[in-house]
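Deliverable D4.2, example record:
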Amino acid sequence: MTKREYLAPWERAFERILTPFEEFLHRQTTMGVLLMLCAIAALIIGNSPLAPGYAHLLHTKIAIVAGDWRIEHSVHHWINDGLMTLFFFVVGLEIKREVLVGELSRLQQALLPIIAALGGMLVPALLYATLNGSPPESQGWGIPMATDIAFAVGVIALLGPRVPKSLVTFLVALAIVDDLGAVTVIALFYTDSLDLHYLGAALLILALMVVLNRLGVRRPLPYFVFATLLWIAFEGSGVHATVAGVFAAWTIPARPRLSTMSFADRLERLLQRYREADEPGKPLVNNPTQTTTLWQMAQTVDLAVSPLQRLESALHLPVTYVVIPLFALANAAIALSPRDIEAAVSGTVAPGIVLGLVVGKLLGIAGGVWLASRLGIGRLPQGVSMSHIVGAALLAGIGFTMSIFIADLAFFGNDALINAAKMGILAASLLSGLAGYAWLRWVAPGPVPEAH
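Output generated by the structure prediction step:
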């Protein structure tokens, strides 16, 4: 009897270690925990004797040179404008998927999270503006508009079955619209003077990527090459370079070449050919028919999965466990001396951000959903009550990643305001997370029974 499976000498033992680790990496709570640990580590480093060396490392220049062409930036800039482009690329893929086949694909289903997201962006910005009416403080109005979905969903995951699954779906859809709004704000309002030559080059590259899509090109390499050129063009244009990630994502093909049944029929034929070509006792490497058939089966699987799905899946782990943690380490080192805390509390930037994220998100999202429901514009998701929406609105006040990103753009070059803004973001995120957890745990009812 032939062996059905070959395992290397240490493979079984290695899998016993690896499998639980892989499961841990794919848990919703893991990214939130990792982000929290990185933020705490950055805070400790930023308020320790290591702070000067840490700052020196972040300001170290790294250059890419090709002949007379040169791009030179600090490590901090490469993380925020380079690596974070991957984060925005994944955000763009998620937005496109949701718009095409997800919660935002049907207008009736999409209306409620869209209205909630709009309220959750406008009200925080207005509340911030009431405390910060003149520059440079007024430039931070976009900071409290953002929601960090990783932290928010991570908190919900801690609550387990007490929270209806449809509430998670609603919050994710809301965050997708929120991300699209944040990207639009960055592109329109946090852009330096435009270089029309570079901007024209960016539009041309984007058009070529659309042509690739229309021609049916599904290999990732051509898109990667053009996306890199698109990033360079945006970097020179004055529009924030990370926006290139979102635009590039929208050119990635979202539909597979094979339909579900075409895939099944083709795979069945190939599997039958594979079985018929089997020669007992002869290794696969010496059976060219079986080897060729295996390659064709692999290609068939590729044709049944859209490039958008493959890229989103492939980039999820590196973005989640490399890019975002590095961003947190590079941006959360806030000075917390008594003098810095006093300056933040006595100023208007940090209180404005706390007011916007904690109160503004609650009023904007819960108020928007309540008003839309009363007007008959949208319906609450199955199993979700208005009390659940209040809990989700509180969690939406966690604005860590995108809020810190916008703070660096809004107050570029003003370290005091950046420090105050980040202090406000951390305080608001902590308050929102605790309030949202407490509300959903002890105030909101369990899942509403589904109607039969």
